[in-house]
Input
Amino acid sequence: MEDERRHRRIDRTFRGLTPSVVRTAEPAEFGRTVCDRLVDRGLYDSARFWTVERSGGALTLRARVDDGRDRGSTDATGERGRLAEIAKSAVRTTELECNREASDHRPDAADGGRPNTDGRSFAAVPLTFARTVHGVLGLSTSHPDAFDRFEADSLEELGTAIASALAAGERDSETGARQTNEVPGQSFGEDRADRREQQQKLDRLDSINDVIRDITQNLVDASTRAEIERVVCQSLVDTDRYRFVWIGRPDYESETVAPTAWSDAGAEYLEETDISIDDTETAKGPTGRAITTRQIQVTQNILEDPDYRPWRERARRYGYRSTAAIPLVHGDTLYGVLNLYAAEPRAFDDAERELLSELGETIPYAIDTIQTKERYQSFVDDVFDSSGVGIVILDDTFHVAWVNQAVLRYFGIEREKTVGRDGRRLVSDRLKHAFAEPEAFADRVVATYADNATTQEFECRVEPGPNRERRHLLHQSQPIESGFYEGGRLELYYDVTERKRRERELREKNDRLESFASMLAHELRNPVTIGQIYSQQLPNETDSEAVEYVAEAFDRIEEMIDVMLVLTRRREAVGERSSVRLAEVVREAWEDVEAPEATLAVDVDRSIQADETYVRHLFRNLLENAVEHGGSGVTVTVGGLPSGFYVADDGPGIPPEGRDAVFEAGYTTAAGQGGTGLGLAFVRELTDVYGWKCALTDSASGGARFEFTNVEQEAGTN
Output
């Protein structure tokens, strides 16, 4: 995991560094830029930047940056230390040199067998371009797994980009020097024509050098491969040095070269030109050979070169007399071929071919960088852009790196005006104004940027406005602890508008139901009370059994009213709590249960704080449920628990998959015997109101056991 995190940091840092290198003019300046960035990002403890003198190959230290930590008196990274020695070796071998044993504190033969006491690993990166070492980048780090294969490959790519910039600077210096010095061994009078030819050559190289510099700058700013190819073609033609420029890619299925970009001038030439990559005559030209050899190929005289016969007459009509094909290769990948046509024969001398070869290395590097970014962006878009959850990704400087379509829709904003902006300013200047409480929203979100170790969650409401609707959102955010945007922040916005609507409707329904239940209870209690009173005043000669049935019916109706109020009004329906002795209430409830053959065992001696009426209802419902499902001869036991009580029977029990359903209102297996399905629903609601915990499990005999815990008990009771 640590290696992967370091690899991602290396990739992000190096790719972000390359544009800075290309834009910088002086070696000392971009040497300082490179070293500063690599050390500041915590990848390396020290960085050194040397240039190589053309005469003698001596190293000149241009930049030196350390992380500021005390490493003792040993100058292991100084000009005469270990890193300088490795740098000299890199110049000799033109290959990246690493000493990874340093982190193990092991002696090194090149160091006279002396142990490396500061515990660091070293690497020297030769800055090689067009087979010339222009400088060395030296690095040291205490990371135990530094300079593995991935890191070495990445450093070599970075070295190529730096070397390209160094080479461009050296060309500028050489061109200026040549223009101010005479050619040795010649006088002004001896060979004026040669001097004029030499000056023209220098002017031509200077012009090419300028256009390559401009192209390099444009490559940094380009956003697509097509834009890179178009800029290269048109820029080269605009110098008037070349009559026509185009880029083609090999199509291995059809075995032809397909043009992908071309300059405006001469575009008709391509319509009549067929180039193949097979064994036929149309594969023997410079373009086909460049694809095969992956080296620059030149036809210095189109009218005389026999390999150019298939296109000679066409080239004659368009005024082309020489041509060069430069393969665009990065790593192991051929990205295409750059083709240039000049109006004079023998236009491509050694110096010009060297410049074009360097351009041929810069172009595919830029294409690879853009394609890597496009692949990553495409992956992110495919996975997250269709999500209904709004996603904002902030980088480690809290600038917006990416947003998906849901965020744009929720806030009525545009992607091009959002990505790249500072997150703090985006929230304060734009986003907060979409919310019902703008300042509260801004303060809470921006606060996490100052303390990126925290997670956050809160609900907020977006008000309607241009390109947005009213929405209720759940905001969640957290730090990004790994991956490409490590050190940044992830913000999510869940649309909870529908949930809020359902909650509001449910509250309104519950309010209406509670109002109706209260009204119904009030309307029923009066006639029930009257009926109970008059049933007690009936003459003695009235059938006593009938009177008992009437009285029980009225009592049952009153109980149902109580149950209905608990189910609808919950806590408001329960009166003040008082001391309730469980054993007494259980026996009273058992008297109301018609089960002459059933047995009740009471093994609890404690008092609880509750409303006695509702506790009696609870026990009556549990006892009736036991008799209903356990049979007429069932035995029901009520016993104590450390923090409550239980009711168990020896009936058939309730299977685990059906235990949740029995508590639902309306659930009954005795509808034909007058069951309402409210009994156990009342039990669950009453336990919730009192804050008890209710669990349904198996009894010791395999029947049902209802356990009630977290029950408020009176002190001194067991």
Summary: The chain has 18 helices and 22 strands. The longest helix spans residues 497-535. The two ends are 56 Å apart (CA to CA).
